[in-house]
Design brief:
The chain is built from 15 helices and no strands. The protein has helices at 10-21, 45-48, 58-74, 81-91, 94-103, 116-129, 135-154, 170-184, 187-201, 220-231, 234-244, 272-289, 297-312, 320-323, 326-334. 56% of the residues lie in helices and 0% in strands. By secondary structure, the protein is mainly α. It is globular and about 55 Å long.
């Protein structure tokens, strides 16, 4: 693996492609988010989700496809490109997309994958829209619109944020959904996301950063800052961030600058901490781009990102508990 400060090289892109190709169509083991409404609902993942049935769970399969789409666009010369094209051609058929969309019509699917899977599906669609040939974006559009509509319905009644470092993090969802709103030039959706972020987080000051928790794969503190960075104008974000983490340039709170220790990568929850290190690297890299050129935090943030990448980038593969999802988080960091 290249040095932790490297960007996405062709060699890394190829490795990530091989990892994702090895799990997006691997149906088992599988941890389903599926409510049984009757005995007829006791069926397997592929029967319910003809596209996103692999990768241990639905949302990991979605961002596995995002990984493949992203490396395919950024490094079209990789030897896995043809296999990626073949996979997408077989998966993104009109019938398969409609089956995924129709699953959302079930009464018990109202909370399906909220908000993490929603956001990743929109992030995947935003990536597909960046491709020169947008055939896959056109195919996936009905499913993406269904999830965008779920955000439009849910956010106005979500009085409070969910401040966690796992799947129900509302800050992470806002950050990813913003990518879709911008790609679609959907000003109304972007305004809803921005207004929600301000309502939830606008008054936050002096973050204590009591983290990590034992199964975090997101930093509740930094992913909140990432959402605000993504949605606020630069000057407004800089003012907000200086109050949110006023001592960041001094490396405080120290918990945000030191990588988490991963004691057992075969344990799915403990392996989350590799994701925490990678997502912190993503946040620190991205946040630094929104700071002024003379801001002393820029160098501190880059150094923190490098430390977190060094801790977990070598471990994106090896045990399936991490392998089915960690490359996506490494890719976020390397392309920040």
């Amino acid at each position: 693996m290249s040095s932790p400060s490297a960007d996405l090289t062709p060699q890394i892109a190829s490795r990530f492609a091989r990892i994702a190709l090895g799990h997006v169509a691997r149906e088992y083991p599988n941890k389903m988010d599926h409510v049984l409404e009757g005995p007829g609902d006791a069926v397997g993942p592929r029967a319910l989700h003809p596209i996103f049935y692999g990768s241990f769970d639905w949302h990991s399969c979605v961002h596995g496809y995002w990984t493949l789409a992203t490396v395919r666009r950024l490094h079209p010369e990789i030897p896995e490109a043809a296999a990626i094209d073949d996979l997408f051609a077989g998966a993104f058929t009109a019938a398969n997309v409609e089956a995924e969309r129709a699953y959302l019509d079930r009464p018990s699917s109202r909370g399906f994958e909220r908000p993490y899977g929603w956001a990743w599906l929109l992030r995947l669609q935003a990536e597909l829209m960046r491709h020169e040939d947008q055939i896959w974006a056109r195919r996936l559009a009905p499913l993406a619109e269904a999830f965008a509509e779920r955000f439009r319905t849910y956010l106005p009644k979500a009085t409070y944020p969910v401040r966690t470092g796992v799947h129900n993090s509302t800050a992470f969802a806002l950050a990813l959904a913003a990518d879709y709103a911008k790609a679609m030039e959907d000003a109304a959706l972007e305004a809803l996301l921005r207004g929600t972020a301000r309502s939830w987080y606008g008054d936050d000051r002096d973050a204590a950063a009591w983290e990590p928790s034992g199964d975090d794969f997101l930093s509740p503190t930094l992913v909140e800052a990432q959402a605000m960075r993504t949605l606020l104008p630069a000057a407004e974000f800089q003012a907000w961030f200086s109050a949110f983490l006023p001592d960041a340039a001094k490396g405080a709170p120290a918990s945000l600058f030191n990588p988490a220790t991963v004691s057992d990568r075969s344990d799915g929850k403990i392996a989350h901490l590799d994701g925490l290190n990678l997502s912190r690297a993503w946040c620190w890299r991205a946040i630094s781009t929104s700071l002024g050129p003379d801001d002393p935090l820029r160098a501190v943030a880059h150094a923190a990102a490098d430390r977190h990448l060094a801790a977990s980038l070598p471990h994106v593969a090896g045990d399936y508990m991490g392998e089915h999802w960690l490359a996506s988080f490494a890719l976020l960091a390397l392309t920040a």
